[in-house]
């Protein structure tokens, strides 16, 4: 399953793929540098906030393995919980910057 964070022109800023294997759930995160840069330039008055939010998004895989997994484990049955937490992060970011979360 893939989640996208898109701007008002439907440009993809973030592409997150959640995959459920036989033994664990994994995350792949890609941030489009051009679209991210445009968002940052349009929010220079909040640049520290933007950089921090997108740094957190870019580190979701690290969060999964270094924070979530030691606390809760990472099994295929964890997929719904992990997806909900990732979706919450994206939804908060979308709300703050007038973006849209799209699920494919």
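^ structure tokens above, recovered residues below v
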């Amino acid at each position: 399953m893939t989640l996208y964070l898109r701007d008002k022109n439907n440009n993809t800023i973030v592409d997150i793929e959640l995959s459920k294997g036989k033994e664990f759930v994994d995350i792949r995160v890609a941030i489009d540098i051009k679209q991210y840069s445009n968002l940052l330039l349009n929010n220079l008055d909040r640049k520290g906030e933007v950089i921090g939010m997108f740094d957190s998004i870019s580190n979701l895989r690290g969060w999964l393995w270094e924070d979530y997994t030691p606390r809760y484990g990472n099994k295929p049955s964890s997929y719904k919980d992990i997806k909900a937490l990732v979706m919450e992060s994206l939804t908060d970011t979308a709300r703050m910057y007038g973006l849209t979360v799209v699920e494919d």
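The mean pLDDT is 96.
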